[in-house]
Amino acid sequence: MQLLDGKKVSEDIKNEIAAEVQRMKDNGEKVPHLAAIIVGNDGASLTYVGSKVKACERVGFESTLIKMPSTTSETELLKKIKELNTNDDIDGFIVQLPLPEQIDTQEVLMAICPSKDVDGFHPENFGKMALDMSTFIPATPFGILELLERYNVDTAGKHTVVIGRSHIVGRPMSILMGRKGFPGNSTVTLTHSHTKNITQITSQADIIITALGVPNYLKAEMVKDDVVVIDVGITRLADETNPKGYVITGDVDFENVSKKASFITPVPGGVGPMTIAMLLKNTLLARENRMC
Ligand code: GUN
Question: Could you tell me which residue ranges the Tetrahydrofolate dehydrogenase/cyclohydrolase catalytic domain spans (predicted)?
Fold first, then answer.
């Protein structure tokens, strides 16, 4: 079994980006600037956004964090987005999800200028991705592709089973794994809450990508020998013995599934750090595209 070490690979990517930023600085060019909007006080979301801002500092990007109260109206948020769309200093920005229930997420994502949509969630960018056109690929799926590529995991002709059809991970992942090229050329099954006999499907899979958010969902009895397992789940489970008061748990029963797997991502230290690295990569692309 080989660990797909997202912590290490994401460090490699951040070093590559930092070197490019240094080159920009040496040439007197403006460095990329990422902005992030967070609405409300959800602890996990605040942690994720904080990590994104910290990663910007690490590679030499400029960053702006905009915190809005949980009572923010959709109109107020749309106004803020318009400001960022027209602010020439900002190369790309994200709106951290989920949003409070008074706000229509789709309306918000559609208001982001596609050329600054470094999350790749705007329908125009999502459509371009599905049509194999050059665009921003959502950071988590992009990170999974990068991990598969850097570990040279063979995906062509393999049966990839994606568990979960979220717009952020499962749906784009199912499209990307079926695209032409590497990593891709897979035969993809997208499973979800209405799927029947899931074990019958997962036990035939060469590659399993779980993005459910159900701790220890995928058990050893559900997979075949030499399976490749990508665990996107990050659930906080209360744990009083831990100084933070919680532990991060994936969708996979790692202890037992790893005994059968050929490649597997740990949680934490697998897909999570890759997501942040690829957001930086998209922001760098946004900056470079503006200079054309
Ligand atoms: N919430 C969970 N994952 C993501 C992500 O990749 N981007 C944003 N904006 N919100 C998220």
Answer: 4-119
| Ligand 1 pocket test, candidate residues 119, 121, 122, 167, most atoms within 8 A of CB | 119
For residue 290, the model assigns a pLDDT of 84
Distances (CA, A) of 221 to 31, 89, 209, 260: 49, 52, 16, 10
* Signed CA dihedral, 185, 186, 189, 192: sign only: negative
Tokens, residue 220: 């050893």
Domains of the chain: 26-113 (3.40.50.10860), 139-272 (3.40.50.720)
Q: Is the pTM of this model over 0.80?
A: yes
pLDDT along the chain (292 residues), means of 10: 98 98 97 98 95 98 98 98 98 98 98 98 98 97 98 98 98 98 97 97 98 97 98 94 94 98 98 98 96 54
136 CA from centroid of ligand 1 (Å): 14
pLDDT score at 103:
98
Q: Residues with beta carbon inside 6 Å of ligand 1? A: 94-97, 119, 139-140, 168, 275
b/e burial code for range 180-198 (CB count within 10 A of at least 16 → b): eeebbbbebbbbeeeeeeb
Q: What is the ipTM for the molecules in this complex?
A: 0.98
